User: Fold these one by one.
Assistant:
Number 1:
Amino acid sequence: MALIVQKYGGTSMGSAERIRNVARRVARWKAQGHQLVVVVSAMSGETNRLIALAKDVSPQPDARELDVMVSTGEQVTIALLAMALKDIGIDARSYTGGQVKVLTDSTHTKARILHIDDANMRRDLDRGTVVIVAGFQGVDENGNITTLGRGGSDTSGVALAAALGADECQIYTDVDGVYTTDPRIVPEARKLERVTFEEMLEMASLGSKVLQIRSVEFAGKYKVKLRVLSSLEEEGQETSGTLITFEEDKNMEQPIISGIAFNRDEAKLTVLGVPDRPGIAYQILGPIAENNIDVDMIIQNVGHDGTTDFSFTVNRGDFARTKKLLEEQIQPHVGARAIEGDSKICKVSAVGVGMRSHPGVASKMFRTLAEEGINIQMISTSEIKISVVVDEKYLELAVRVLHRAFGLDQA
Amino acid sequence: MALIVQKYGGTSMGSAERIRNVARRVARWKAQGHQLVVVVSAMSGETNRLIALAKDVSPQPDARELDVMVSTGEQVTIALLAMALKDIGIDARSYTGGQVKVLTDSTHTKARILHIDDANMRRDLDRGTVVIVAGFQGVDENGNITTLGRGGSDTSGVALAAALGADECQIYTDVDGVYTTDPRIVPEARKLERVTFEEMLEMASLGSKVLQIRSVEFAGKYKVKLRVLSSLEEEGQETSGTLITFEEDKNMEQPIISGIAFNRDEAKLTVLGVPDRPGIAYQILGPIAENNIDVDMIIQNVGHDGTTDFSFTVNRGDFARTKKLLEEQIQPHVGARAIEGDSKICKVSAVGVGMRSHPGVASKMFRTLAEEGINIQMISTSEIKISVVVDEKYLELAVRVLHRAFGLDQA
């Protein structure tokens, strides 16, 4: 008998029929003798509907009140799933974040979980009751309702698994696992049986939208065994998804590269001819951060003649605003020669813990791209990832040839 | 400076624009220096939408879970109203039933309020904050969410006013007060400046749908000054509605009759020739009550020849079921001669505390109806009410002539 936390997203809770499907799936796990805590999101579209309603009343809704309102989405689905379970003879009980209670700080709309009280849930689990918890929400020390920010239900699931010492946290989604790359671009992409947390973090931040990155960090921190599964598979056809492990499997031959990630939603900016002196990076990026613009890659090469070029990438939606900021405020301030920008770029990355012990991954990657005539505009590396920025038009080609070059299309 | 509890129904909260209207109204009261607690219902239609969704998932939804779900309707509107108030510079704070907290028993979907903790609300009021409370809901001693049953927001308003010792509880609705009768039937009907609780109870139970009867009982029990007002009146055009007083105004000439109430939603049944012996009423009405059929008027006249006739009225929707029950189970059991029934009747009542001290009201009522050729089928009286059952087709005529006969069309 294991204690399992399952998390179902908005698509899985999207209609009465789907909710009954989830209930049947939960019942099958229960029938195998497991204890179950089920974390659910709001019905798909509901959170957006509520936010739109709030904005209809108030252009900039008060954050505390927005949380009161938006948290109702999950309050509806916990009740519906509990009803559906009782209907098929499974004892179940719903809990709001406040009823659990999931204690958070008071940062409304993006609160952080501080502590989870497991007493009520344990009592129910010991009685054989399925515990259903509203994802995405908590309460602060004064009883104010808080929410964890978009995608926070994954984090709720992992945090509950950590608090309960669950044997596994299963994230049900509309894909059946983590792939070596996007199968829409490379049909030969394979599902990974397992992937390490570090790889998953790099994949997630690079645009593999399977899991919310914060939940992966959380799982790594508390050593929660995380599994991504499909909620769409029929009874008897279920696969075991992808297990996200918090240590490398010592018994297995580690693949050098686990996957090719990419992101076409970026734009690059370069500040040309900035004085090569201490503090220049901060003088450029400080104002960017103050304007709430997220910066991804940052590259500065060795300078010459006392100046250097400084490049970085931002979300494409922030491109125009960032360029204006650079031209009007930063260029005169730091005394740069010129500002250049390009929003028609993309980032392609090879990710794998195996590259730690295998030199030559970078050169293989660069050679593969060169053979296809793809010019590399920027390069950035971490311990387990090599990212390049190339012209947007080469995205599919680059992903495809790298996927093949690193043997990811072979089992 | 007064402490005022205002309650707004689902129509008043029905759209973003209406919610902003309510906010402006609250702001005007606040500007007069009053402390305000505002109780709100869910947006009109929302509770029904949620119940339909629940029934879509589960034919007979679990009552505890239904409360978890349905209570979200008011959780949305408290947040929206708080946002709207903040937008116009009024400090406001929303509270769910659990956050107040409104302690109830554990009878899900029709819980009764046991106690209201006023500490949080007092703290906010002392700071000049407008307190916004979700109507219709509470929590039991184990923290389970409960609801008070349909129309429970009126009860929430009155209960909060009682707990806070408010100077007045204002119920905003889509009519501007209590009328001497339905203006759709008698255009000369006048709005009453004040009406006693007893009269209001008789009016409410007779079909004046202005206030939920439970809230009126509650107000009478705790001596809460209750006022019915229109939420549709424009700024500067507001009237003072109808004040529901818990004692007769000694300084005023009391009108004999305050209003003519009516109900066309009834049906009458008669058990003919039942043995005139003790316990017979219980033998007839016991099975009716066991089948959850509400009985309104009950009439039994003196018998003769050892038998009597026993009549009562029920909701028209229960007529067929009640008749079947009488014929198949009760008639053979009590040894009655026959069962008669008529679903084409209506009840017309004259209500007024003044009739206590003014004999002759009944005879005036009967004479007025006789002059119009309206046959009276049943008569029932209380201390402040005389009700008659007449053929449905005479409803409008009876109401009109009685309204005139008792001088209600004159200020």
Number 2:
Amino acid sequence: MNIQIERVNEQNVEQWMYLLDGLAGFEHRPPIGTAAKKRLKADALAPTPRFEAYLGALDGEAIGCLTLLSTYSTFRASPVLYIEDIFVLEAYRRRGVGQVLFDFCVRLARERQYAGLEWTVLKWNEPAIRFYDKNRGVPISDWVWYRRDLHA
Amino acid sequence: MNIQIERVNEQNVEQWMYLLDGLAGFEHRPPIGTAAKKRLKADALAPTPRFEAYLGALDGEAIGCLTLLSTYSTFRASPVLYIEDIFVLEAYRRRGVGQVLFDFCVRLARERQYAGLEWTVLKWNEPAIRFYDKNRGVPISDWVWYRRDLHA
């Protein structure tokens, strides 16, 4: 499959919203609200974007997406490419689209001389876990990830 | 204790290196090498720094440090403050310095209207885990964190 990877821009941003809605559904989350979509678009398209959003397109139709962050490991004294989202529409799965998207991330991290890549996966998402194991991902088992949400 | 929090700059950057060496020792890692220290200093002091590094100082002496990143949650459609490092020298622990540093992070995240804070903790670091539980941190148990290291 000839997947074209393109950065999210003013022209294709609604296709990206469609994919993020698909991702929300896949993760059993409610659809993204209007205010959240407005923030996502502003943060993706700002002069200094808060993340890098990409679409994977087949014959001009967006069928997958990536959201990437440049984080940092003081332990490695190097930036790390963090994959916040990697998603392929259900109808296009098992055809190598995810591999094209993941390979793009690895290539980007190598080109930038980052120390590596990190991402998280839902525990029940067994096809994704098999995919990451095959792609030399290593689960980080000696650390616990914590969150504290802030509410206005 | 009257802890002053100051951004790492050209004047105090060696104090920050001293603290990061202390953190490496605490985590049973080897001392930070010369090349890594050079990269850390360059990345902290660049015109567009790759992270925000802060010192906690008592009477002008740096006794703790913070390394912070602005990451992003597409789920929340908002930035997140990621605490890459939070560290207090052993001789100054159990006196509230960590609380001052953590409160600074919460304040920063609130001021910036971020969705929340995230961090990781080593599984064996029970005092830190108790501290985070007390500070309304929630372990994220439904996701697995993955890494792929790249070697040149």
